[in-house]
Amino acid sequence: MSNLKVLLKNSIMNTWGINKFLKEESKSEKIKNISIFFAILLGIFSIGILIVMYSLAIVEQLGQYGYLSLILMSAMILSTMFSFFTSVYKAQGVLFSSRDFETLMSLPIKPCIILASKMIELLLLNYLFVALATIPPAIVYFMKSGTSIIFFIYLLIGIIFIPLIPIVMAAIIAFALSYVSSRMKRKTLILNIGTLIVVVVVMIGSFKMDKILNIVIENSTSIIQGIKTIYPPSYYFTDALANLSLLSMTKFILWSIIPFIIFLIIFARSFKSINLRLGETFKRSNYKLTSLKTNTLRGALIKKEFKRYFSSSVYVTNTIIGIVIVTVAAVASLIMGADFLIDQMAQSSDSDLQVLAPLLKQVMQFAPLIILSFGIGLTCTTGSAISIEGRNLWILKSSPLEVKDIFIGKIGVNILLLIPTIVVDSVMFAIAFKLTLINFMWTIFIPTLLAILVSVGGLLINLYFPKLDWTSEVQVVKQSLSSMISILMGAVLVVVMIFVTIGINKVFAITNINLYLGVIALLLLLLISLICTILKTKGEKLFNRLKS
From CA 78, how far away is CA 72, in angstroms rounded? Predict the structure, then answer.
């Protein structure tokens, strides 16, 4: 137990940057870190207020029909789904791509203790989101139901155990993918493809969630009993809080903790061997000297960056998912038809897609442009491109390369990932949606500009908020401030594009949509020029100051 405590302490100190913050000597860095901390707190508080407002809006209707406790069940299910979905991304990186694995295995610590520390690390990453999804609705329920203050004790106990099952499920998927890929020659390729398939399947399943729930509820005596059939822990959690039932809370804890313990016992045996196999490399034994090929400096840099990118399954699966979703949508629209795709979005359990679907039906000719733009906004490899170098950054900095060429290598990866996808998907969308020639050209041109803007913008953000002292790639790709801002930037850009169009329409009452798109293209070009100028001046100085 003492070993587990030490491992967890070190993990928390390094993962959350506490150690660096406490020992930071630079006043400007301390002020920046404190500002970031309070900005995050403000963001969390704002989201909490929004959830409270949403809960207040629906709690009255639930109370009228005698289903007030459904707000607790909904919060619990939302937390579970979120924990599972985010853990599918994180589990492989935390469990199998940690840079400290060899160091930990050389210590006199049992593999099961190391595995337990990694699993608890996954838990800690999810507790913030679980608390954010459950506490605001629980407060609203407490206000409306007039239950005892003991309710909050039950709530806190419940929050501790909510993420256990989804994390075990995500870890099993990570173990299965890692086990299969560890026995293959091209480990990372198999792991990347396997993880992307799992993510796409989960997303398709989430789109069908409403239909599945309706079928189950139709064959049940009530909504709550129907949900109990699908996921019993949600029922016991809700009953424990609504009726302050110690028996239901005990059942909920047992449902959550028993799978977790069984998982640790079974998989601790293969944890070490899978990690070791994943670290193995294969060399050709029948190598023959043939003619050597040369490449330009920038071409060689981009090739090297592509190899680094595809060598990390965590990096790939967390940054490429946007264009994968768009490609799946393009193929679906080509096979099933454009109307089928829009109808599926309207029937989705995702509220954002439900809102977007009617808009797309009204502007069918520009639906592909909007879909592509959202996918590109989620695809930003440059937001982690500098940080991913970690302790090896000194090698790159000591190379006989200009900083400008290093930047082009990093940016080139994102652009070369996106532009071919934009062209291919645009062709499929053009056939499915029967786009006119001019609309087809806009569907390629604007997303291409957006791809360039996201690429250069992500790199600039990473230079301002680098994270080089990481032990797991998850910390860089998923948890770092730079990666979060980069993804947010993409989403904000798309929303701004839509509002610019609406604003021009209201102010000038122009009916020619091509003029709107021309203004958006011009704004994107101006932003690209501005960020490129900053990269050439301030960006190079920031890069030269970095220390690995």
Answer: 10
3-state secondary structure 93-127: HHHHCECCHHHHHCCCCCHHHHHHHHHHHHHHHHH
pTM: predicted TM-score of the whole model, two decimal places: 0.71
Per-residue model confidence as pLDDT tens digits over 211-253: 655 555 555 455 666 677 778 898 899 889 988 899 999 999 9
User: What is the secondary structure of 271-282 as a DSSP string?
Assistant: HHHHHHHHT---
**Burial classification of residue 58, based on how many CB atoms lie within 10 Å of its CB (0-12 exposed, 13-18 middle, 19 or more buried):** middle
- 8 A C-beta contact, residue 455 and residue 384: no
Beta bridge partners of 98: 472
What's the CA gap between 529 and 534, in Å, rounded? 9
What CA dihedral angle connects 525, 374, 483 and 89, to 10 degrees?
A: -160
DSSP codes joined into one string, 304-337: HHHHHHHT-HHHHHHHSHHHHHHHHHHHHHHHH-
Domain edges within the chain: 28-278, 297-545
Distance CA 472, CA 244 (A): 41
Contacts for 244-251: CB closer than 8 Å, 24+ residues apart: 244/147, 244/148, 244/150, 244/151, 244/154, 249/154, 249/157, 249/158
Tens-place pLDDT, residues 60-69:
766 666 677 7
Q: pLDDT tens across 461-505, in order?
A: 999 888 887 777 777 887 778 888 888 887 778 777 777 766 666
Annotate 218-234 with b (16+ C-beta within 10 A) or e (fewer). Answer: eeeeeebebbbeebebb
* DSSP string across 445-500: HHHHHHHHHHHHHHHHHHHHS-----SBHHHHHTSSHHHHHHHHHHHHHHHHHHHH
For residues 501 and 164, give the distance between their C-alpha atoms in angstroms, rounded to a whole number.
45
Residue 8 structure tokens: 């967890």
What does residue 353 show for φ and ψ, rounded to 5 degrees? -70, -35
pLDDT for position 334: 85
Q: Of 430, 80, 108, nearest to 227 (Cα)?
A: 80
Q: 333 is written with which tokens?
A: 């629209």
Length of the chain: 548
Say how far apart CA 194 and CA 180 lie, in whole Å.
Answer: 10
Please, are residues 273 and 286 in contact by the beta-carbon 8 Å criterion?
A: no
Is residue 330 exposed (0-12), middle (13-18) or buried (19+ Cβ within 10 Å)?
buried
Instruction: Provide CB contacts within 8 A for 209, sequence distance 6+.
Output: 349
* Nearest Cα residue to 315 out of 466, 473, 86: 473
